[in-house]
Design goal:
Layout: H1 2-14, H2 16-36, H3 41-69, H4 75-103
């Protein structure tokens, strides 16, 4: 929740492109951390938090990008499509994670 508020403030302060770039950089760092240091619960949680910052920055900046890219008469449609695809993406990713956990059970995960 803190990252979402910070993302909104960054959009107002430095603009959408820089906020999206900052979010992308956080995503890269978070996934590198996850790839390199995934042996303890704490390191996985820390990497997940960094990736969460990336997602929050993207969610904060994307509506501004969309609204700036469409005519004023189409802003409601653009925002609605953004919301639908955000929901679909969340649903598909949750299903994918559930599937992966069934295929590769928790017994194969690191203890802790």
């Amino acid at each position: 929740m803190i990252a979402a508020q910070a993302g909104g403030a960054l959009v107002r302060r430095i603009g959408t492109r820089r906020t999206l770039a900052s979010g992308a950089a956080c995503g890269v760092v978070g996934f590198i951390l996850l790839a390199v240091a995934h042996h303890t619960t704490g390191s996985v949680v820390a990497a997940g938090m960094v990736v969460g910052v990336a997602v929050a920055f993207g969610f904060a900046a994307l509506p501004a990008v969309l609204l700036g890219a469409v005519p004023a008469s189409r802003t409601g449609i653009a925002n609605g499509i953004n919301s639908v695809f955000r929901s679909v993406g969340s649903s598909v990713s949750s299903a994918l994670i559930g599937t992966l956990l069934i295929v590769k059970p928790a017994k194969n995960l690191a203890p802790g």
